[in-house]
Protein 1
Amino acid sequence: MSGHGEPVPMIARRGAALSGVAEVPGDKSISHRALILGALSIGRTEITGLLEGQDVLDTAKAMRAFGATVTRLGPGHWTVDGVGVGGFAEPGDIIDCGNSGTGVRLIMGAMATSPVTATFTGDASLRKRPMGRVTDPLALFGTRAVGRAGGRLPMTLVGAAEPVPVCYTTPVPSAQVKSAVLLAGLNAPGQTVVIEKEATRDHTERMLRGFGADLTVEETPEGRVITLQGQPDLTGQSVAVPRDPSSAAFPVCAALIVPGSEILVPGVSQNPTRNGLFTTLVEMGADITFENPREEGGEPVADLRVRHSRLHGVEVPPERAASMIDEYPVLAVVAATATGATMMRGVKELRVKESDRIDAMARGLEACGLRIEEDQDTLIVHGQDRIPGGATCATHIDHRIAMSFLVLGLVSDLPVTVDDGSPIATSFPAFEDLMRGLGADIGPVTR
Ligand code: S3P
């Protein structure tokens, strides 16, 4: 598991143009939700295309601990026999969510209104992340939580035996917080309402409806008002998980910046709450065509044809942040190669991800010879014709920081090393193989 084993230094060198087809794995957000909603349903849920990254495997294990039967039939093909809303059993041991903020926060929500007690922990990265943003609204249902100072893991939650429904306006744009409240609302009587001022990824809403919940979404001047009728009978479903746009981001950005490249990335989700990176790249002058648009697994998808492009810096508007929150690290790498400055504003949420991603990117890019400006809520990258590289970048147990600096190494004068590539397995276990298959020179340092 990432953060628990020996670090695995990795290195990327400049080399040939990238070409071929990049089959990126299933969407991480949807994979977590499919397992959790399957566990909260009556009957069997059959999942295809499940991401078998460590984050999702940890959620599968947790669902077993709460009483669901979770079975792997083959690669990406899983079944979940659920226990129904309110049917969670008390886990016999601590729930270790590894590196996954989504896993722990959604599972906390899912158990919060059942009369069970559970203790959660995670790796060194997850134990630094704030859980109060989830346990504060869960307290409104009657859930009690005791953790370390600052609302950090390990943390024990005592589920509300007699939950009351809540109306909650999320103070930060976070799909994890929204989803935790909605999942808790499932076992509360009456209507639970979540209001979000800015739209965040809407997979929980889409899937709750798909599993039979009565859920409405209204766009109002105050924001998106999501109303869920409590205590529905959720029924097991077939879920085809689309490919993850956040993983697609790495080969897409690599092909854009490595001269002569052309790749095809099929079946990538184009959900408007997730596609801010692609909008931004096109604004920067990226040659991306969105071929064969269609619907898969309830999500809009397209095949992305990506060609090396001359890019220029842009100002990314703060209101786009939620739709590309996980993609800023790799955008910062693309920005390093673009003409002029790329200004990323309204991005303070990056400071509470798997690492402080503003700091991690700023320090690593500076070490590779780039000029960076930052403040609490902003990252500005000044692009250059030549990137010296030659540094070892700290990844802070953060998969996306590791993958981003490896992409940078593909266009740097000297190779770029990351101190630990092992966290990549949390979201994109096949990253190295996939990138090498396209022609990228990426591998372990000892090679
Ligand atoms: C996720 C929501 C985002 C994102 C994370 C996945 C989800 O976090 O960064 O990788 O699946 O709900 P926040 O909700 O904290 O913004």
Note: Residues 245-257 form the longest helix (13 residues).
Protein 2
Amino acid sequence: MKNIVLIGFMGTGKTTVGKRLAGRLGRQFVDTDLEIERVTGKTIPQIFAQDGEVRFRSEERLVIQKLSRREGLVIATGGGVVLDPENVADLKRNGVLICLAADPEIIYQRVKGKKHRPLLNKKGKLREQIKTLLAARAPFYAVADFTIDTGNISSGEVANKIINYLDSLRTNGEL
Ligand code: S3P
């Protein structure tokens, strides 16, 4: 059974939707950031501050290698997972990649006031920071098999759309 892998920018709802989807499908849910925190014994902000982003990306790479060898999971990934083509190749090998998307303003409203994302740290310039990073990341999120705008719908509705998409793949014999 293939994994269902949620990719997409910070604040697009990967963790919330992933938990819901896993519950609906009776699958195990795994969040790559939580997995990194478990393995390292540090929080994501601590890893960035003490060891740097390069170290975070190598921990992330190890977690992806490990998880992509498993089957039947719902995996919520960190927003930067797709920057490494080897992560994408591993996840695609036995997974369906679903991208959750949202407009910059919606992302801004969702992430402002939250402190656990080291890459969104420009207090007065958070809107610009989101826009710039989102534009730079857009080509990487285009690797998805299916993309859903989560801007104006509930996490339950996003989960429904994913389930409908998976059903259509099954009907076409692609899953
Ligand atoms: C990151 C996204 C974060 C986390 C880390 C880096 C990114 O995950 O992995 O702070 O590079 O976009 P979320 O997308 O779950 O916030």
Note: The chain has one domain: 3-171.
Protein 3
Amino acid sequence: MNRRPHYHKLRHYFMVIAASFAMITLSACSQITGVREGVVDSTEEPSLTLVPTFSDAIPSPTQVSQQEGDEPETTGDQEPNTNPSLPEQTNRLAIDCEPPADLTPSMTEGPFYKTGSPQRISLVDDDVTGSRLNLSGFVLTSDCQPVAGVLLDFWQADGLGNYDNSGYRLRGHQYTDENGRYYLETVVPGVYPGRTPHIHVRVQSPEGSLLITQIFFPDEPSNLTDRIFSPQLVITITEQSVDILKGEFNFVIPVG
Ligand code: FE
């Protein structure tokens, strides 16, 4: 009996089976390799992200700030004519102005102005005496348009009525932001002989106009006896507590 044809048939079946097995193995390997490299066929379901991107893994500086609730940091070496980002309090400011607005009256400069004050929005150092005051507002034109880049140079007495004439305590300058806003952290100044509580300020526009004036506080008994007090220069109190007084004042300046 000749068994060779039967042997050839068996060998043929075996080769077909072996070839099929090899193809299945190759196909499976190529899929595994695709997963490891993060290769996603565009025809697959789009919901599967295999490898995180850098933008997913590393939060942006903005995200970090929001997560930690940080206030933007201020540094001493800012570019001139710019302020650090103003705090949340100023975001709620609304321009209370009816054109044509009266220009803010000027006032005597007094004997205690010093050039060269540091650029800063907070005048509150550890050794400053007085109740905390946060003052904010706009610099506007008489058309009620905010003016950006206006220099505001503040100086004042401390809570006991004393000026620092040897250093720069309670002295500082800043610039209005792109929305014409300013923000000052300081203390409520005390009275000194002949004067009711007041804060001095020089307001200089980018075009060069200069307003020198003083701002005052409402309901101060000594307002009645201060010969240069002006009710037009009184701040509006927006919040008052044991810890802090918050107020607003807008300066209206000529442009040019
Ligand atoms: Fe003064």
Note: The CA atoms of residues 89 and 136 lie 8 Å apart.
